[in-house]
Design a protein that fits this description.
Layout lengths: L2 H20 L25 E2 L2 E2 L3 E4 L5 E3 L4 E9 L3 E7 L4 E8 L1 E2 L6 E2 L4 E4 L12 E8 L15 E2 L2 H13 L1
Length: 175
Amino acid sequence: MNKKIYFLLIFITLLATLVVYNYSDWKFISPVKGSSRFSYSQTAFGAPRVGHKHKGVDIFAKSGTPVISASKGIVIYTGVLSLGGNVVVVLGPAFKTHYYAHLKTTDTRLGMILNNGDPIGTVGNTGNAKNTPSHLHYSIGTMLPKWYKDNNNGLSFYTDPVPLLNKYFENLKNF
């Protein structure tokens, strides 16, 4: 088969999958197995850091604890970044990006289709977290900024994951 046709078929398949995934229901689960409402700070999102604001939540757990997909989606990046260390980025419903950082290990590959609860990797302290307790840095980004909520704080491309985590654990408690 011609290489151009092959890549075109792959592109069309991925595009169709993206459309289906991005216009379907978004069910959220905690990305760290065994975590609880006490595993993360309620005020982490937007907290001051050196030169920027914290754009996610740190979910603390023992090194090697499984990290799972908080949402269905497609892996758009697996690799190493200077700040995040071992990182996985998943494009999920509503074109939200789910960023999993400081991983000890990764269990994904580019283009992999994930469902809620599928393995992402394990909790670690790679990147700029090498001198901190093991944790998952988890953030939710958006392709389209929320300018109306920006207030010049640099957070317009991010969604606070803490309310989603709180709702998830509240629903578990009531189940």
